[in-house]
Amino acid sequence: MRAWLNRPLLRSLTPTSLLAGGGVLGEPALDDANEPPAPWKVRTVWISDVHLGTPGCQADALLAFLRQVECETLYLVGDIVDGWQLRRNWYWPQAHNDVVQKLLRKARKGTRVIFIPGNHDEFARAFVGHAFGGIEVAEEWLHTTADGRRLWVTHGDLYDGVIQCARWLALLGDQLYEFTLKLNRHLNTTRARMGLPYWSLSRYLKLKVKRAVSYVADFEQALAREARRRGVHGVVCGHIHHAELRMLDGILYANDGDWVESLTALVEHADGRLQIVDWSAVARGGCIPALEGLAQAT
């Protein structure tokens, strides 16, 4: 891990370089004057599982979303940078730089940005309690909505039995997931040539494999139980790449999804209502819809 921490990306994420306001890896900052005004204004945004540093990351789609939305608080709920993948194979295109720069600019312009590390960017847990370029690093957070509900915000990996008890299995599963994504890209290239819509192989496998469905259900129940134990109204998490917004035995369970396949975020409106935003249709060539009606709000 120490050797990897000396790689260029991590060197650029030192307090000195970030507070100076420069771009990552020495790249010039983007010109905000060329960005269209954001028509969406919400109170809070949660995103997770971006996996910068992997070919599967939909950085351009995320950048378009970040340009479209304005918020008071932005939560980065873990696995923003994929340290596991970067240790195996260094991959960092310009689009991934642009996402980091956009996040830094939002922090500079008044958005409160809170980064809660996950298992793939667990190296950042060494910096809990610090701020880098205005981005605060925290182990977890307690968010109060505009209508008074208290939501516990955590990535969720600490409540994943596979991560905690069989790390080798989690690493193997990560490599298999990357293989599935690569296969999925080739498959959808062929489907596009045939005029067929995008189809997610990994999502299909998750829904069809009984153990995977059971794993998701166990994960959701574990977080709901912990939220109840903490005496809060709900939990916001990521980790399993499955966006969800529903009640579990009186506890609000909200998962903001991912920016590898589903391209989803969770937003809070000015009155405290929560809503899942599905950006996938926009990313695949559709027009930008109105925020209202994108997904169920609660």
Structure description:
The protein has a domain at 2-156 and 236-283: Metallo-dependent phosphatases (Purple Acid Phosphatase, chain A, domain 2), CATH 3.60.21. It is built from 11 helices and 12 strands. It has helices at 2-5, 8-12, 15-19, 59-68, 83-88, 94-108, 161-165, 167-193, 201-208, 210-230, 280-283; strands at residues 40-47, 69-76, 112-115, 131-132, 135-137, 141-144, 150-153, 234-237, 244-248, 251-255, 264-268, 274-278. The strands form 2 sheets. It has a 7-stranded mixed sheet. Strands 6-7-8-10-9 form a 5-stranded mixed sheet, with helices on one face. Helix 4 packs parallel to helix 6 (94-108) and helix 9 (201-208) crosses helix 10. The radius of gyration is 18 Å and the shape is globular.
Short key terms for the protein model shown above:
about 300 residues, alpha/beta, Purple Acid Phosphatase, chain A, domain 2, seven-stranded mixed sheet, five-stranded mixed sheet, about 35% helix, disordered N terminus
Topology, pairings included?
Layout: H1 2-5, H2 8-12, H3 15-19, E1 40-47, H4 59-68, E2 69-76, H5 83-88, H6 94-108, E3 112-115, E4 131-132, E5 135-137, E6 141-144, E7 150-153, H7 161-165, H8 167-193, H9 201-208, H10 210-230, E8 234-237, E9 244-248, E10 251-255, E11 264-268, E12 274-278, H11 280-283
Parallel strand pairs: 1-2, 2-3, 3-5, 7-8, 8-10
Antiparallel strand pairs: 1-11, 4-5, 6-7, 9-10, 11-12
Helix pairs in contact: 4-6, 9-10
Summed up, what is this model?
The protein is built from 11 helices and 12 strands. It is α/β, with parallel strands linked by helices and 298 residues long.
